[in-house]
Amino acid sequence: MGLIIYLNGEFVPEEEAKVSVFDHGYLYGDGVFEGIRAYHGKVFRLKEHIDRFFDSAKAINMTLPLSKQEVIDVVRETCRRNGLTDCYIRLIASRGKGDLGLDPAKCPVPTIVNIASSIALYPEELYHTGMSIITVPTRRNIPEGVNPRIKSLNYLNNIMAKIEASIAGVPEAVMLNQEGYVAECTGDNIFIVKDGVLKTPAPYLGILEGVTRNAVIELALKRGIKVLETAFPRYDLFTADECFLTGTAAELIPVVKIDNRVIGDGKPGPVFYQLLEDFRELVKVDGIDI
Ligand code: PXG
User: Fold this and answer.
1) How far apart, in whole angstroms, are the C-alpha atoms of residue 193 and residue 198?
2) Which residue's alpha carbon is nearest to atom 18 within ligand 1?
3) Which residue's CA lies nearest to atom 4 of ligand 1?
4) Which of 76, 147, 252, 266 has the fewest CB atoms below 10 angstroms from its CB?
């Protein structure tokens, strides 16, 4: 059965959810988006996603035609209309229809779309065996260009890295920033554990400040684990006791090999298992009701 899609103030069947080929989201990747998840009838950290959505729009000088509360209600209503309680939600604001030039001033009205659909989960086995990933030559966008903190419709930087990983036969890529410090993966943030300390790249290094990342930092602090948001090179990956990734789709997923080198003892570690358990409890209670 087809989905009901929110498109510019209306809920329409997916066959009717059409956007112009003159939309600058299509012509130039000019726009922003969010990937959100609902668990058991609650949209996880919806307020944080909406805040980031509005910050992304502000950063590209786009004024959204809806208030934050209206966008929250659009997200909830899209879930309700599709009868979904556990789902993946894709909220998109593109610059809107304009002419063939790149001037956004020719696009008077942003196009707002929201999709709620079933989620493609990683196999549960991966949470026990761990992933093998590589660092790739493609560097993360420099903050002075398109700042990675903006969740923009320009994902080519990450897609290039993903292609490099796929060619090498692994599911994910570690991207370094321009200075060679570890930044993040193509759609996930990265954490390491060394001597009981949890470390993750700081936002100024040029990363998307993940909602899952921030939740994991809070959970770790609650457990009394020391957390450092800092800069580190690949050396710290290779010498880490544990490594894992965080993201809306992945939740927390362990990494046991990087560039064919074994991380720690080659198995997901105790800090990972503790935080995954805490996270899976958190999603049951921390969210806005559909
Ligand atoms: N870094 C990047 C570059 C991302 O795109 C994250 C980190 C994790 O952020 P959250 O807020 O989700 O914890 C993302 C997440 C998907 C998918 O379907 C995920 C993202 C983008 C596109 C698709 O897994 N972004």
Assistant:
1) 5
2) 249
3) 187
4) 266
CA–CA gap between residue 41 and residue 284 (Å, rounded): 9
Q: What's the one-letter identity of residue 233?
A: P
How do residues 195-232 score in pLDDT, each as one tens digit? 999 999 999 999 999 999 999 999 999 999 999 999 99
CA 193, CA 22: separation in Å to the nearest integer? 47
Res. 1: pLDDT tops 80: no
Q: SS3 of 161, please? A: helix
Note if the pTM is more than 0.90.
yes
Q: DSSP letters of 36-64?
A: EEEETTEEETHHHHHHHHHHHHHHTT---
Of 35, 60, 32, the closest CA to residue 45 belongs to 35
Kindly state the tokens that stand for 230: 């800092």
Say how far apart CA 227 and CA 191 lie, in whole Å: 10
Backbone angles phi, psi at 241, to 5 degrees: -80, -35
pLDDT tens readout for residues 165-187: 999 999 999 999 999 999 999 99
CA 269, 274, 279 angle in degrees (round to 5)? 125
By DSSP bridging, strand 10-13 and strand 4-7 are antiparallel
Do the strands 197-201 and 227-230 form a parallel or antiparallel pair, or are they unpaired?
parallel
**Contact 158 CB / ligand 1 (< 6 Å):** yes
Q: Do the Cβ atoms of 45 and 251 come closer than 8 Å?
A: no
Residue 21 has pLDDT above 90, yes or no: yes
Does ligand 1 come within 6 angstroms of the Cβ of 211?
Answer: yes
Cα–ligand 1 centroid distance for 165 (angstroms): 17
**Which domains, from first to last, does the chain contain?**
4-117 (3.30.470.10), 126-285 (3.20.10.10)
Question: Whose C-alpha lies nearest to ligand 1, atom 24?
Answer: 249
Whole-number Å distance, alpha carbon 237 to ligand 1 midpoint, is 21
Which amino acid is residue 217, in one-letter code?
A: I
